[in-house]
């Protein structure tokens, strides 16, 4: 059974029952539908992965917003201070994520974060090349990507 589809249907039903099909009503209906499905999850075998994935995606989005703020402040500070600390460089990162969509989310996450830019992915999707504004320690950049972004993307796509 498609739990996500059922949740969407519950959101539409909620909006229809309230009399106004607006984005806010759909979001409220989706939240209420999620709560109802969570409470009744013993009735739906295999739906636990839906809630685990949803939590993983929410964590990924919140962490992205946090990293966006922190890296933006770091780049702004480097631009506004007279002494530049940036040491740009290109770093290769071996990838463990599987699937083109997971690689796409990972590369966009990196590119949207100020101070880093995804340059290329090898044909076999095993290596990512990034340009980093602060590339003093390429090993540390690899570790941060592997243990941070890539781990969260892998969780969201499992």
Portion in helices: 55-70%
Q: In what range is the share of β-strand residues?
A: 5-15%
Query: For the terminal residues, how far apart are their CA atoms?
Result: 18 Å
**Structural class assignment:** mainly alpha
Quickly count the helices.
5
In N-to-C order, the SSE pattern is HHHEHEEH
Question: What number is the mean pLDDT?
Answer: 90
Largest sheet: 3 strands, antiparallel
Concise description?
This protein has helices at about 5-20, 25-40, 50-80, 100-110, 140-155; strands at about 90-95, 115-120, 125-130.
Q: Main traits of this protein?
A:
about 160 residues; mainly alpha; Alpha-Beta Plaits; three-stranded antiparallel beta sheet; 5 helices; about 65% helix; about 10% strand
Care to describe what's here?
With 158 residues, this protein is mostly helical. The chain has two domains: 3-46, no CATH class; 57-157, Alpha-Beta Plaits. It contains five helices and three strands. The protein has helices at residues 3-18, 23-39, 48-80, 100-112, 138-157, and strands spanning 89-94, 116-121, 127-132. Strands 1-3-2 form a three-stranded antiparallel beta sheet. Strand 2 (116-121) and strand 3 form a beta hairpin. Helix 1 crosses helix 2 (23-39), helix 3 (48-80) runs antiparallel to helix 5 and helix 4 (100-112) packs across helix 5 (138-157). The two termini are 18 Å apart. The model has no long low-confidence stretch (mean pLDDT 90).
SSE topology sketch:
Blueprint: H1 3-18, H2 23-39, H3 48-80, E1 89-94, H4 100-112, E2 116-121, E3 127-132, H5 138-157
Antiparallel strand pairs: 1-3, 2-3
Helix pairs in contact: 1-2, 3-5, 4-5
């Amino acid at each position: 059974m498609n739990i996500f589809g059922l949740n969407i249907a519950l959101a539409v039903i909620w909006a229809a029952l309230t009399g106004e099909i607006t984005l806010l009503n759909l979001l409220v209906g989706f939240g209420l539908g999620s709560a109802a499905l969570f409470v009744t999850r013993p009735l739906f075998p295999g739906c636990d992965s839906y809630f685990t994935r949803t939590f993983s995606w929410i964590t990924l989005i919140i962490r992205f917003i946090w990293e966006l703020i922190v890296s933006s402040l770091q780049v702004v500070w480097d631009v506004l201070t007279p002494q530049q600390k940036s040491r740009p460089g290109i770093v290769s990162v071996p990838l463990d994520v599987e699937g083109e969509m997971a690689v796409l989310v990972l590369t966009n996450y990196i590119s949207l974060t100020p101070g880093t830019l995804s340059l290329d992915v090898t044909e076999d999707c095993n290596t990512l090349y990034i340009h980093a504004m602060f590339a003093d320690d390429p090993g540390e950049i690899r570790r941060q990507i592997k243990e941070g972004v890539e781990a969260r993307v892998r969780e969201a796509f499992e």
